[in-house]
Amino acid sequence: MRRSTIRSTLCWLALMLAPLNVQAAAPAAEKVPEYALDPTWPKLPLPNHWALGLINGIHVDAKNHLWLYHSPELVPKYALGAAQTPPTGKCCVAAPAIIEFDEAGNVVRAWGGPEDAKKQGYDWPSAGHGLYVDYKGNIWIGGSQTRVGADGSQPDGLYLKFSPDGKFLLQIGGPGPSKGSLDTTQLSGAAAVDVDPVTNEVFIADGYGNHRVIVFDADTGKFKRQWGAYGKPPTDEKLPRYDGGPELPKQFNLVHCIRSAKDGLLYVCDRLNNRLQVFKKDGTFVAEQVYEPMTKGSGSVGNVSMWPDAKNTFMVMNDPGNFETVILRRSDLKELSRFGHYGTYAGEYQRNHQMEFDLKGNIFTSEDFRVQKLKIVNGVKP
After folding, report:
1. What domains are defined for the chain?
2. What are the DSSP calls for 204-261, one per residue?
3. Global pTM?
């Protein structure tokens, strides 16, 4: 075959294949936000020589303020010189458990901890976990401990609700061991909540000890309904964690997050099974997706947060087992980008626990003793 004939044939093939190639490449060309560390957030040092313990939860409210929940009792002893009697150094004292930061990273207010609980007459979690700001501005926190601690502390079977200034409003459950995943009076290591502004229901990821989503009235604490994986009744059967194979587990293994989208769908993180499951508000199963199926350790699906546009086009997902941030397209749960790696320097992740969008699409990440802010650098906006 002559060279001219070969060249003509190749050009014809290229023209015939071009529409297919363009169509296949369209999703990859989707404008996805890209990020870089914002070293100006928060404003440091924190006031009053404050030091932070383990970061238990973060959430962004309707004013674009970040709320942070940490464990004051887990500030390292070497950092508490100013709290000793007499002081052994100028730094530091443990910060209050709940801190509100404004958009610029300044502390707005802070409150909470075991002493506040004693004064107001409610139970404080033994091992704090999760913070959520509901549509009324109220603050929800829980705890993840499922056994009696070495210090005699009780398992966390509760979730708490407060006003923005720290006034105690509601306690669901109480300290003590699980009564089983079908019991409606007690939680067990509940990891996260989401509150529906339409029905005023609180959806709880009751997942360190129990294996379910459970729903209560957000004002009275009255039980409404519950479900396990695939919308089936939850069980307490001891199941092995997912092994990465084709057969997916029939029950949850550490329900670590729950988050609602504006269209009413609920997204549930089944952390140790490396998957995200989607439900309607009544518990009807809709879809699921597995990510990095061979991941062990902390698992690959830690939490999700919704991109703040009208359709919640994207989600950010925390992958704690691989020390990465993942951007998903919400409509089909497809992974669009993945970045991050292990390390202790600014912009790296050591024990990434939670990732949250703010109202401008920036991302906040929490670890044991710090929160970092990642800002959009490619002009994509919600």
Report:
1. 40-378 (2.120.10.30)
2. EEE-SSS-EEEEEETTT--EEEEE-GGGPPP-----PPP-SSSSPPSS-S-EEEEEE-
3. 0.91
